[in-house]
Amino acid sequence: MALGQGRFQLNDGGSSRTAFAVVAGDVWVFLDGRVFVVPTSGQTTRRASADDATALMAPMPATVVSIHVAPGQRVDRDALLITLEAMKMELPIKAPRAGRVTSLACQAGELVQPGVQLLEIDYGT
């Protein structure tokens, strides 16, 4: 169900969750700390590495509230990396896979735009 301002309520059996959708070329959907990109250019598949990189980008215009990791830090899958705030709601950015943080591209208090990479993770280590 559409809630307005890019927000949608999803009902999955007995639970309900809120998803955010932003059109920035492709449609970006933010759900449960993950970012999914729905291509609008006719492209139907994406490589896993592209999905991993996409998960580490700002899904919508937001303010960086806090950064929970540092370069060199090892993270597990679903570890909380960064907390963003948009439309008075906190948006957790979580690790799509286990790896090591190689660099940060934002700082607390910074306003970030959709598609801006927030940090880099090396998944080979």
Protein traits:
125 residues, four-stranded antiparallel β-sheet, OB fold (Dihydrolipoamide Acetyltransferase, E2P), five-stranded antiparallel β-sheet
Report what the structure shows.
- This protein has 125 residues and is mostly beta strands.
- The protein has one domain: RNA polymerase II/Efflux pump adaptor protein, barrel-sandwich hybrid domain (OB fold (Dihydrolipoamide Acetyltransferase, E2P)).
- Helix content is 6%, strand content 50%.
- It has 1 helix and 12 strands.
- The chain has one helix at residues 48-54, and strands at 2-4, 7-12, 15-24, 26-31, 34-38, 62-67, 74-75, 80-86, 89-94, 99-104, 111-112, 119-122.
- The strands form 3 sheets. It has a 5-stranded antiparallel beta sheet, with no helix packed on it. A 4-stranded antiparallel beta sheet has the order 9-8-6-11, with no helix packed on it.
- The longest helix has 7 residues, at 48-54.
- It is globular and about 40 Å long.
- It starts with a strand and ends with a strand.
- Residues 43-50 have low confidence and may be disordered.
